[in-house]
Amino acid sequence: LLEEVRKSEKMKVVGELAASVAHEVRNPLTVTRGFIQLMQHGRYTEDKKKEFIELALRELNRAQDILSDYLSFAKPQMENVERLNVATELRYVADVMSPYALMQEVFFENDLTYDLWIQGDRQKFHQSLINLVKNSIEAMPGGGSLYLSAIPLGACAEIRIRDTGIGMNSHQLQRLGQPYFSSKDKGTGLGMMVVFSIVEAMGGIIKVESQVGRGTVFIIRLPLVSNAAFQLVKDA
Ligand code: ADP
Ligand code: MG
Prior knowledge:
Strand order of the largest sheet: 2-4-5-7-6
Helix content: 55-70%
Number of helices: 7
Radius of gyration: 20 Å
Bound molecules: adenosine-5'-diphosphate, magnesium ion
Distance between the termini: 18 Å
Structural class: alpha+beta
Largest sheet: 5 strands, mixed
Strand content: 15-25%
């Protein structure tokens, strides 16, 4: 029963949040439509048109950022729980993010030698790791190194995502994960909230250590699952 109550509370939060995200996306779309209508009906110089197009594109990028930080979190599809190899999924995320990292002169260092199995929804796990890695890259505007590791720790897999970036002060640490809290010009403030919810849903915990001007490490512990235990859960 407790589990059910918690679930319905969560659905409520997700529902409210979805409404507010929809609102956040509608604004840039309305602005974009406005510019396109202006160009359709008015006569403007090439320079003016170029300006409208740039503004419309900026607004569309905004809508895209909001959706990409949030997307798989709110996806109405059924949970698809699988056995996941932590190192494989981390390597995949490093690959996906490598063009973005390269652009900012961020280099990956990996320590992914263990075979650690957890269970969860692969897409959601990817989304949470991508949001974390993206933040780390964005915290290193002058380049730096991004260290990814996964080691066994008792009955858990311990993942570390460490950057040599700008770090966070106590105010930022305190507000981390609150919807719409962002210290960035074009931030959405949705990425960390999604990370916390997904890790919690996977039965894990997150710790953060950060020093202004030195960098940040996110430490995530997720319960390991044995092959036999997973079969039992699946067959039940
Ligand atoms: P956004 O990235 O859109 O700002 P997030 O929810 O992903 O929203 O992150 C919220 C805030 O947390 C960021 O704006 C930043 O202030 C802080 N933050 C998160 N990760 C890091 C990091 N690795 N280094 C420094 N600050 C971070
Ligand atoms: Mg982010």
